[in-house]
Structures are given as structure tokens and as C-alpha cells.
Amino acid sequence: MNAPVDTPVLPQRRPRNLAQGLVENISERIRSGEIRPGDKLPTESEIMRQFGVSRTVVREALSRLQASGLVETHHGVGTYALEPSGGGDFRVDPADIATVRDVLVLLELRICLESEAAGLAAVRRSETQLAEMRRALDAFKSALDSGGDTITPDFQFHLLVSQSTDNRYFADLMSHLGSAIIPRTRINSAKFAHEDRAAYLARVNLEHEDIYSAIMRQDAEGARAAMRTHLSNSRERLRRAQ
């Protein structure tokens, strides 16, 4: 393995999402050859210091890079760059999700994928995974009540559902997309829904609870229906706004 690569902060436009900004920075350096296959990336702490981001942001970025096949992590050793794959393979780039139309197209994909993921999760989830979903929803409710960050627990809940399918491809796709799947990271969803922020997020919270309840009951069809309703509601609100 080659020595760790020095990764200074590069001048760039402010990213729409901190994790995605970090993904774009490292991805570009790998694809350009500045970071070569086999080069060891700096530690999480060093990336946090150089880019001025939290450990959560760094871990989300590394997870997306790993899902994209650009790096691999050896636990207890470090993260290493891989040979970039050819440009012809299928790829969903979170950086391209910028308009209402982009969000609508992604929601159509998510309705198909995540509805089935919820059904599989209801059958295959473990008690530990169910408890983690409960903690994510509790964190969402707490942030809703305090006016804090609801995006992180929102994404965490959807990611946990995908992980509970016991099918790594569901989880890999969700990890790659990251919090870009949450419409309000790209647009003002409450404004499009013609509601104030608290009312809009309260409805999202209830829809999440319906999904969780079905998964807890191990009701596969109920979980599929609840997830489809949740994502379809988001899609219809945006369609009406257009």
C-alpha cells in the first residue's frame, strides 16, 4: 500500500450538502489520478480537521465512496483508493439532484425500491434493527419539537429499513445516495406542500410511524403500503406544486 495522501482543502463552491461536497472532492481527485489506486486516505479525524466537518459527515461520505467502488475500508487499518471503474456503468449521482423535476424522478425510483425494501424488512429485520429504527424516529420527533435537524434521523430511518432487508444492494444504493434522498435537502418541501415547517414535518413523522408499526408487526404488505403512501405523498405534493 502507498503512503497516506495529503488532502488539503481546495477552493470550491459551497456544496448543497457537506457529505456530498466531500464525496465530490475526493472522487474528482481519484478519477483525475491525483489520488492513485492503493493510496491510503487520511484518518477520519484528519479529514474532519482539514475540511471542517463532523465525524458523521466524514463517515457518510466514505460510505458513499465505498458504495461507488472508489475506495475500500479495512477495519483497523484504513481506507484505500481503488481503480476507478469505466464511465459506462450505471450510476446515480446525488450531485445531479437539483430541481423539483430531479426530485420527482428520484421519488419514482424510490417508490419502487423502498416499498419492496420495507416489505422485506418486515420479514427479515432483527430486534436490534427494530430498536435502532425506534431510536431514529425518537430522534426525529425530538428534533421536530426543538426545531433541530430532522434530516439526519430521517435518512437514518430509511437507511435502517434498507439494511434490514438483509440484501446489501438495497443498503448500498441508499448509502450511495445518502441524505440527498430527502427532498428538503434540495427544495423547500414545506413551501411546496403549502404548510408551515412544523405541520409538514409532523405529517412526515406520522407516515414514518406507520411504516415502523407495520415492520414491528412483521406485516410485509402493510409495510409496503405504508412506505408507498409515504413516498407517494411527497411525490403528489410536488406534482401539485408544479
TrEMBL record:
Annotated TM spans: none
Recorded GO MF terms: DNA binding; DNA-binding transcription factor activity
Residues spanning the signal sequence: none
HTH gntR-type domain residues: 16-84
InterPro entries tied to this protein: GntR_C, TF_FadR/GntR_C, Tscrpt_reg_HTH_GntR, WH-like_DNA-bd_sf, WH_DNA-bd_sf
Name by which UniProt lists this protein: FadR family transcriptional regulator
PANTHER family attached to this UniProt entry: TRANSCRIPTIONAL REGULATOR, GNTR FAMILY, UXU OPERON TRANSCRIPTIONAL REGULATOR
